[in-house]
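quick one before i forget lol
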Amino acid sequence: MTDLATTERFFTAWLAGATDGWVSFRHLPVGGDRLGIRWAPATDLGAILAVVEELAPHGDLWFGVGIRRENLGPGRRGGAADVAYLPGLWLDIDIEGPGHQTAEPLPLDTEDALDLLVDGPAEPSLVVHSGGGIQPYWLWPEPLAPNKDILAAWHRFWAGQAAERGWALDNVSDIAREMRVPGSSNWKTGEPRPVTIL
């Protein structure tokens, strides 16, 4: 089930400083093995919602957190060199449960994962529950050019905080990172789990 109100709330915040560029969407239909790529202008919320409304009911849906310079067509999602700017910073904190295969411990539940954020330099602007963990976002006052050193330092800080609790933390600090679309569903375990804003 798609919750477009959640999608609208998220992208209204994430793209508040957007003046140009494109958002990439990657889609994996349930039971499918071929990924599809769709695009929407970063300044056109209606177009973004239309893409999500069309694709989200049929499988997993991710978006490129970095705003791409141009629409690269249906076969490419773009790499670091294609990203024009970043609206902020992000993390992906997996929670113990189905769909996560790691030898290292993970937070046991959402409360544990949220508790990790208390140790940060600032409260997140938004926290998304991905259906398998939490994905917090910190918005900058205005978008900044991609900077891999900032992203790497951000990950190192949080990986250290997680390690103090004995937890593993995925490294999602690459400039071309994709994250789950709020308002869509997580089909990783075969049953749809809603991607919500906490």
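fyi The chain has a mean pLDDT of 93.
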